[in-house]
Amino acid sequence: MKSRNASENRDIVEDSVLMTLIGNGEDLAPVVRHSFEMGKPENLLHQLKNAAKRKEVEIEELCKLHYEEFIVAVDELRGVLADAEELKGELASDNFKLQEIANALLSRLEDLLESYSIKKNITKAVKMSRICAEVLDLCIKCNKHVSEGQFYPALKAIDQMEKNYKNNIPIKALRNLIEKRVPIIKNYIEKKVCGETNEWLVHIRSTSKDIGQKAIGFASSARQRIEDLLARQKKAEEESSLGLGDFTYTLDVEEINENSVLEINLVPLYRAYYIHKCLEVGNQFREYYHKNRMLQLNSDLQVSSAQHFLGSYQSYLAQIAGYFIVEDRVLRTAGDLLMANQVEAMWETSVAKLTLTLEKQFSQMDTASDLLLVKDYVTLFGATLRQYGYDVGPILDSLTNSWDRYHELLLAEYRVKIKNDIVNDDCKQMVIKESEYQSNVLSLHLQTSDIMPAFPYVAPFSSMVPDCCRIIISFINDSVNYLSYGGQTKFFDFARKYLDKLLTDVLNEVILSTVQSDSIDVSQAMQIAANISFLERACDYFLLTAARKCGIPTRIIAKPQNTLKAKVVFKASRDEAYRALLDLVNKQLTEYLSLMENVNWIIDDVAQHKGDYMNTVVIYIDSVLSIAQKILPLDVIYKIGNGALEYINNSFMDTLLSDNVKRFTANAVMGINNDLKILEQFVDEKFHSTGLSEVYREGSFRGCLLEVRQLINLLLSSQPENFMNPVIRTKNYNMLDYKKVGIVCEKYKDSPDGLFGSLSNRGANQSDRKKSLDVLKKKLKELN
């Protein structure tokens, strides 16, 4: 019983699950597969049948529920069918009437469509006619512009035709004609424009020189204004430093001169380039322009062999300057016709050729003034093109390379001037009036004192000194003028070098050659020596002038290491002049002392020896020292006096030692002693009168005669043999030499050789002195 109930309950559950699956519309395949796998398809079939029965019951119940409503709906449907039949009849009647009316309208519609077709054709024809008319109008305009030379409007008309009508011209004949004629017109325009360009190229080349000259003229005016401004500023500073006058400050406003604007007509070039761009051959025109301008440049850079460079350098440089001014204007205003790298390449080529040309021409010039003229114009040329952005450094460097050449020529020219000035100098002290003192002394810093002298002023130098100073100042100006150009500022060292060369290699050499010549006398040599001293002092002024011209502060030049080498050279030359002066003095003394040959060395009486030669010597030395006292410093006077007296001393000694004097007596020695006393007295007085005694307190001129004085004293002494006593010799005869004393003593005779000479000189003193002298001779012989 229980198992049957369980089986029924399971069937109920399975039926309910199956009904749920069917109700949900799910797939029953898994259930069917499961039933067959379990081997119980009958149960599934039974369940399906039960499910079908349940659905049929549900359908019957539903049909019963809606039957009445269905009957009512069927009745209503029958009513609708009757109304539809009635409506169909009415629709047929209306369709018939509509067909009758539509036939009449259809005929009218066909007429309207035909009219529309005619209108469309007429509109198309009108449009085609209008296009042809517009094209023909553009053709007429193009022909008119071409005939009038207005190529840009003509090209504009052609461009309009090509852009707007080329593919829209309805008439084939007209289209073919335009396609054929347009290239011909373009080619004609291109040729005409090229012709105009060639004419412009010829014109711009012919006007480039004028353009360059004007631009260089503007640069020259600007430089002059700057120089005038600096000069006024310098003058104001000098007056301010001296505290002179009242000063008012003004503002200098530079007025722009309308004429300073360069007028360059580039309109034909602009038009030609634009037309070529319109023709789409702009690159070709750029190449054409650059090629032709390069040919012009190469031609401009050639120096004419038909004319000397000095006669053509201005036009030559102006032509090149004008060329690059035009190219700069083209570069800045003509769009991309000219590129910056092209201009730079042209400039570099020109700089290389121009530099070689200038260096070659500089080397061939034979006057410094020519070099200066060309240099000045080259600097203006550089200043002009620097304003347009060109690098002129290499060109200015070529001027630097010509410095030595210029100064070589300049030194040669100034050598002639200095030589003429020194040769024509009278070597006499310059007498200066008050009106001449400023120009000849103060302005050249040659004053020896700050106190104004009495006039007329007798200067210690000759006219050669101020003349040479002015020549040297002129050389400094010429040198600095050449060294200073463009942006050059550090050229003072070169100016000093060339100034040193002038002073040492020119002025000093000319002076030395004059000093060493045989044509000058003592007074001239003395004056030249004095002049050298002033030139040596003037070196500081020369250096200061050069520094001022170069813009170097005075405080830098004031340093000791900045002095000129010429000062040392002049000092050496001055010493050489002193030696030459002393040689001339000694030469003259030789002539006067040669009168000693007339002396009777074996004279019987002292009174017969008058010593005329010594009077001449004294007068000559007095004149020499008197002149020297006026123009030479005391140390030089001291040297001249010492040198002359030493020469006299040596001359006396040489005479006594020479073979010309075979024998001399005591009377002759006494005569020389008298002459020597006269000389000693004179030199003592001169030593004091010249002021040397105040400077050389320990010295005197007498010391230069010490050797001959000791020899005379020895020969006249009562006991000559004391010479061999070391103590006495050191005290009284320290300047004498054994050998010389021996030679002189051999020649010395205590008495003359006259008939009564031995009788007249007998005496005890004479005999003792002779014995002593014989002893001395014997000892000197043994010693020698």
From TrEMBL:
The keyword Transmembrane does not apply. GO terms for cellular component: exocyst; membrane. Keywords: Coiled coil, Exocytosis, Transport. Residues 47-216 form the Exocyst complex component EXOC6/Sec15 N-terminal domain. Residues 397-747 form the Exocyst complex subunit EXOC6/Sec15 C-terminal domain. Signal peptide: none annotated. GO terms for biological process: Golgi to plasma membrane transport; intracellular protein transport; vesicle tethering involved in exocytosis. The keyword Transmembrane helix does not apply. Belongs to the SEC15 family. Component of the exocyst complex involved in the docking of exocytic vesicles with fusion sites on the plasma membrane. This is Exocyst complex component. It comes from Tagetes erecta (African marigold).
